[in-house]
């Protein structure tokens, strides 16, 4: 039986309402995968977290990989998964959804926890790091790369002093077979080879579809780089690689710092921090993956195993009490994800006559109008794309990845973008993203990086879709 089938046998098809009461109005948080709600198990009155996803292969893969890892005490546990048909108030018909019941994490995110500690010490940071390392060691032992390791995805079980920290959100996790071509990351935590992979993609002929026979790949070692950045932030309250210039993409000065691992330990914050802590950061923030500590090396490092008190109070807690500082970092992460994330493009492109991707199919159909003016209607896509605003956004992606032959590509891009803008100007993510690409409301005033535009629009589609589907 395949791994996919093994995961599917644990998905119940009975109604979740037989065993749980769901609070549809209380939301614990909202990510790109949609809001997380509170549910209560009827038999025990236990409060649990409920994540709802549209039932599609990507969601099932997230569930599968999370379930593979969830037996570890430092990974958020999945209790049950239901495949139910759910109809929200705004919908005319029900949709198939996965309802994922998980343990409740009452202690909040890592940054929030640190900000609540008046005396967050280096020893505490070391203990948190050890738990993160143990969670990651478990994932890597199963050949799973998390690919989105950041403080927002590290949650405390409760508010007790000894509450465990747990890794969550496997939405970007992937089996690592040495071919992880899709850099999924948040700017402050991105490893050099991920940027190199991005740069290689952008240098391809079309700027969208890679043609290299041996493209740059990266693997689980990127998670290790992320741990190094998280340790640095926990210790001092700011990231090792930063830029004075706010940008929709990673600014050149910040990119250069990451690519060369150029960081230091400013005296004001680091003078009281141990050399052991600095040593593990140095060994994790190595440009070359083969020189970086392995997860086993992290767990064996003296900083995680020393008997010294390490009771020096860290400056990070004071800095993180400023909600604006924390919100600024997190907002920068969220805003830049659209540009930071490159799609899985390391696939053999099918001939257009056999392609089944809805966006490419739309482009094929638009270009298939016979000389007598007869237009081919796509009934399969008609119902799916009934929302005009979303359809206009998909037209932009279609123009980015497969422009029609013989047309002025820049003019056509301005035309479809203007149409999409008319129907989607209320989308903040789209507004901010287009501002970074010199959009004046009618046209682009500068040369457009179509990869960046496609990713911004893709992110906008996901956000708008989830707002509709996950209310």
UniProtKB/TrEMBL annotation:
Question: Could you list the residue ranges that cross the membrane?
Answer: none
Q: Which residues form the Protein kinase domain?
A: 22-304
Q: Which CDD domains match?
A: STKc_MAPKAPK5
Broad class of enzyme this protein falls into: transferase
> What's an example of a GO molecular-function annotation for this chain?
protein serine/threonine kinase activity
Q: Name one Pfam family in it.
A: Pkinase
| Enzyme nomenclature, EC number | 2.7.11.1
Reaction it catalyzes: L-threonyl-[protein] + ATP = O-phospho-L-threonyl-[protein] + ADP + H(+); L-seryl-[protein] + ATP = O-phospho-L-seryl-[protein] + ADP + H(+)
Q: Which Gene3D superfamilies match?
A: MAP kinase activated protein kinase 2 (4.10.1170.10), Phosphorylase Kinase, domain 1 (3.30.200.20), Transferase(Phosphotransferase) domain 1 (1.10.510.10)
Renumbered to this chain, the signal peptide range is: none
UniProt entry tagged with the keyword Kinase: yes
Claim: Transferase is one of the keywords in the record: yes
Name the keywords, alphabetized.
Answer: ATP-binding, Kinase, Nucleotide-binding, Phosphoprotein, Serine/threonine-protein kinase, Transferase
Family designation: Belongs to the protein kinase superfamily. CAMK Ser/Thr protein kinase family.
Put simply, this protein is called non-specific serine/threonine protein kinase
Which gene is transcribed and translated to give this protein?
LOC106585854
